[in-house]
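Thread: Newbie trying to understand structure tokens

Hi all, I'm a second-year student working on a class project, and my supervisor (Dr. K.) asked me to get a predicted structure for one chain before our next meeting. I've only ever worked with sequences, so writing a 3D structure as a token string is new to me. If someone could post the tokens and maybe explain what I'm looking at, I'd be very grateful. Here's the chain:
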Amino acid sequence: MPHSSIHQLQVKGFLSIRDAVIEFRRINLLLGANGAGKSNLLRLFQLLQSLTDDALQEYVARAGGANALLHYGRKQTDEIAISLQFERSQQRQNTYYCRLIPTADDSLKIAEEHLEFQDRKKHSNPYTMSVTYPHAHSVLARPTEWFAKDRDLGLASHVRDCIRAYRVYHFHDTSESARIMQRCYIYDNQSLHADAGNLAAVLLRLREEHRPRYDNLIDLIRLAAPFLGEFVLEPIRGEYVLLRWRERGWDTVFSPHALSDGTLRFIALATLLSLPDEWRPATVIIDEPELGLHPYAINLLASAIRSAAQRTQFLISTQSPLLVSNFEPEDVIVAERIDGATVFRRLERQSLEVWLDAYSLGEIWEKNLIGGRPTR
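---
Reply by user tm_fold:
Sure, no problem. This is what the structure looks like when written as tokens:
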């Protein structure tokens, strides 16, 4: 993996999350009822991304202001605190902590940041960097000249790059105006965008630089969409490319608008999971990937996730019992709303052994034996 994977996350005061600690594995399936708070965990990673991009105020404005982000508003909660631990190995670990406070104009300021790095092979104590100030700009987005010590710059740059390597993907929008339906710049192909808006450019690069991997991807897509002949990824005026395709046995070239929503989403998901390691984020976060997919395609998706998880960490929010049945109990985190706050709980196989002898994990979920179902 090019960057460190998430080891532990602690969140206080953010949306429905009053105070939660989550331990992460290679695969993390997040399930729960509507309104339990699954999406709020995904939104937290978008907040962290905004800090690295110096876009905190834009994020807060899009969310409806600080009062909307604080747990039950600023009358109940006066700050958001986030602690993120990530590691490249058991010997090398980083920690990033930040505390955000509301302002008079309903925005957020950074009250405190703390960065830590420890290489247990070389040092018994971690190297730390702490900044305390009410400010709108994170240390993760500071220019090089702001740092008095090269070591501080190196630590901040490493933490920033690691957080940027956690990407939240939403492939829900397949409307006529969706970016995936439009032509994209041919050289916008370093990694797949969060909405797959540059899918055609990424596929073209994959075909040119990793042909065997591209051919395997086409075979995978055909398992879910046997009618697909090939993608017609020809540059338009030398600078743009559109996700055009041919049906098997026909010469007619179709636009992406001729693909069903489910097929288009599966193509985007399959592409993401088939990319070379260096093209894919260290941690892939996907919101309800099963949306619009045939049950057979969901099983294909699960198999591709398991394969990619050897090199990539996954956090996946899902409502699909079938998808859940493809994984181990220890891969599942159940989100529930208890006393007005989201609580996260990882399953343990030992407590489910009797049920697993007779039912799949998804069936056990449907029977409400592990929680994660609507409750009064």
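A couple of things are worth pointing out once you decode it. The chain has eleven helices and 17 strands. The mean pLDDT is 93. Feel free to ask follow-ups in this thread.
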